[in-house]
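Practice problem: predict the structure.
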Amino acid sequence: MQRPTYAEVDLSAIRDNITAIRRRVGAGVKIMPAVKANGYGHGAIQTSRACIDGGADVLCVACLEEAIELREAGFDEPIMIVGCALPSAAGDLVHYKIIATVCDMGLAKAISIAAVKQGTSANVHIKIDTGMGRIGFRPDKCVEIAREVYALPGLSIEGVFTHFPCSDEADRSFTHAQIELFKSIVEGVRSAGINVPIAHASNSGGILAFPEADFDAVRPGIMIYGAYPSQEVIKSIPIREALTLKSQIVFLKEVERGATLSYGRTFAAKRLSNIATLPIGYADGYSRMLSNKGEAAVRGKRVPVVGRVCMDQILIDVTDVPGAALGDDVTLYGGGYDYLSVTNIANMIGTISYEVFCNISQRVPRIYLNA
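Answer:
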């Protein structure tokens, strides 16, 4: 590895987080982790294997390409696309045995035709919009839709599900209303004589705060990777971050008091300073919003990011780190430092931990520990 910037991913943390979820929901509830977006930046294939090893039942992705990547990597476990697919994808959905989300009849009919043509059957889950407002059938149409899908040849309605937009907020009223509405929908479908084995609703916030919404399965996302979905959510399950972002000092220089650094000259040294350059920047996913406010750890010492974050490089002030030298490891996220947790990084720049993880680019190598 010639470019000394990389992310360490502790797969034992992912396994342990899945195990902690299992302890909470019990043996009778399926765990359907979200491994989309390259495993939230952690690596889809390695993360998926850790989830399965930890006891997960179904892998959830966002699109067909992500599902095929896992199939071609050798995963035989159920894989579900939780987003919309176009009818033109029906043939591949059936061929690769991917569980599709049905949120319009056009896709359902296309999958039915493809399944019959391929001489097989396909499992689908019907999405109900109980308040997220993105995709899904209206609640008052769900029984009618379920009957239509049920009547199509080559299809099996394996599940019905919904999604919570604010299960991680202090105000729990909207989520409570969603849970009651979804319960009534599931009861209505099953009372109509349509056997739907798996009803599921809870994301990470739901798992943490609403055990009454476990139903038959839960879909953890950010908590798999060791971050809570918000500061307001009930932290009822202990988890730990899996990812540590690291770089190394590649250049050191002493600058005089008053010297300015980086684009825009937004930083001026207040003293004679020892400044280190790191080969990481916003092209690697280290946000430009961390200019003059990010932090790092060098030899166990807390140091500031100074000047603007560049595309490929950043500067840190190591004046107070005795013996700082070329090649020293620098921790930018995680590493057991509370101030470098991805949650704290996200709060610092006004975003969420999901985005911080997902923004780590492909040119940052992932090194896997405890595989």
